[in-house]
């Protein structure tokens, strides 16, 4: 189909949907015939839609926004995928480009092939019904994923535009997005369509158990008018295996059992959904910076409005008590997983909207206000390391480094999550709970957590969820700070 120009975002989106659907249908139909024994007489190829804008001016109507405009006159382009997931996102980006530049948007079919694995989607296991000969024939008949189309050079500000080529319009190409959509299903056992715009990461199952109890309670029917109003904020709850429980106060839809899980995934995700996608997703990422980088690498393509870490940490100050909170405003990054993409010497700034919302949520949930907040919360630097047994290193070395940095807590995930938020332009924050104090003789051992600390899990989660509600009220336009944007930035948020 030919390329077309549009001055209306809805019509442009409709054409994107048609181009994507037609090309995916062509691939899936050819694959079905191939799986049934009919070998194509030629290679089967279909390509992603593209969006392009050419402008002679780089002015914008609203200079407060950090996105929605190109940095200088020229031609800009990106490939597009999964309009079923990104329909609202694409429409918003198109609206802003039309508003800021007054030039039509061009939509057409790119030269970037859709790999057959991505066309079939995350619910399809490609090789399950193919014999050995068919599997061997696949690469010569259908396009396979190509890693050259899936790097993060644009996000890392290392992409070099070749002479005569358009500049990038978005941080991620369509194949890179599709790869992450597939990986999210693998790591979390939930489909990308269920992920919400406000994401909580945790490193303990306690938080997941409490989140599940709260979410199931919200979905349960009630005759109490006040409770029904409170519960009406969320429309559904999704658990690993795409098990969907609908809010019985809003809908008569039958719950969906999802698919059978042979085992729990590496990083299970749970989604408390709102109709507009502005609900809360929580992911148990386990322990360590590698998991933290892996999951944020992939959730970033969904362009969430905020993510934060709620987890446990080692308190480094003698004045801290088990169960105290730590609000990170800076990070010492020794995670050793992001140094090739974002050097540890690059500062990760605190984002005021996130920090103020976290502090307000702590105050509201705990009842402490103003100066009294210092009784249960410290604001300061968090050190993130990649060695769970960091306590076994020479104490003198650690005391000097941690003291010079003025660190007040140490963990294995927060710095990585914040740094990847900075790298991918996703607003980030950290609120930790002190679970041990190794430098002061209180090690994390069986039975160490007393009842006071155990009570903190429920309170901590309520603080995180309240923070997300406050951020939602602020609005995505204010959350996506100009602090996160580079000199030569892409137009898409």
Number of helices: 13
Question: CATH class of the largest domain, please?
Answer: Alpha Beta
What is the topology, as strand order, of the major beta sheet? Answer: 1-4-2-3-5
Alpha carbon gyration radius: 24 Å
- Average pLDDT works out at 90
What is the CATH topology classification name of the largest domain? Rossmann fold
Question: How many strand elements?
Answer: 15
Structural class: alpha/beta
**Tally of individual domains:** 2
What's the helix-strand series? Answer: EHEEHEHHEHEHHEEEEHEEHEHEHEHH
Largest sheet: 5 strands, mixed
> How would you classify the quaternary structure?
single chain
Question: How would you describe this structure to a colleague?
Answer:
The protein has 493 residues and is an alpha/beta fold. The chain has 2 domains: 180 residues, AMP nucleoside phosphorylase, N-terminal domain (amp nucleosidase, domain 1); 296 residues, 3-Layer(aba) Sandwich (Rossmann fold). The protein is 35% helix and 19% strand. The chain has 13 helices and 15 strands. The longest helix has 27 residues. The radius of gyration is 24 Å and the shape is globular. It starts with a strand and ends in a 14-residue tail after the last helix. The mean pLDDT is 90.
